[in-house]
Every structure is written in C-alpha cells, then in structure tokens.
Amino acid sequence: MEISRERCNDFTVITIIGEVDKTEEALLSEQIDEAFAADRPRLLFDLSSMDFIDSSGLRLLVQASSRAHRCGGTCALCCLNPVPRRIMRLTGLDAAFDVYPTLKDALAQRRAESLASVDLA
C-alpha cells in the first residue's frame, strides 16, 4: 500500500493506493493523525487506486470520520472501485459517508457546502 497526502484548497486529500489490511494499518493511521494537525480538518479520501479494504481499514475510516466531526470538520470518500464499493455497501458504511464519483466532484461539492455554511452576518 502507498499513501499520499496533499492539501487541495481547504481540504486534505489522502490517496490510498493498493490494499488496506492489518499489515498496513499503522501507515494509514499515521497519515490520518498528521491530517488532523489542522484546526478544522476537512478530510477527503481518494480511493480511486484502492483495490481492497479489510475491517482494520474500515475501522480507521470510521474513526477518522468521527474524529473529524467532533473537531468541527468533515470527512468524505471519492472514486470507490468496485470491490471496496461492494465492501462498503455490504457493511452499511456507504450510508455513513458522503461518497462522490470523482475527486473533482467531491472538491466542488465540499467547497460549495463550506461556503454555504459561512455566517454572512
């Protein structure tokens, strides 16, 4: 598994390449922890190159989402391949995340939501 993390507008995009399983859990956990250095973390997981995810990886995604929301931030997924999409659907976790078809769609929608939430008073 390879992971990259980059800032894109106000978001931290975490791209996962390969398979997420117990043996790679520490690497993903470390990247997620580093993404929480922001005051209001806005996480977006790009899963376009992720081939598989096991229960340890699912747990990390759920924990990241919960942690982001507790900090006043957000967490979303984009570009799910068929196998991870099926796993998310079978576990019911697809309903727990905002899921976007492309990175561009995710960034545009999240940006629009962020602007809409700004108090203009």
Automatic annotation (TrEMBL):
SUPFAM superfamilies: SpoIIaa-like. This is Anti-sigma factor antagonist. PANTHER family: ANTI-SIGMA FACTOR ANTAGONIST TM_1081-RELATED, ANTI-SIGMA FACTOR ANTAGONIST TM_1081-RELATED-RELATED. Pfam families: STAS (PF01740). Belongs to the anti-sigma-factor antagonist family. Residues 1-110 form the STAS domain. It comes from the Bacteria. GO terms for molecular function: anti-sigma factor antagonist activity.
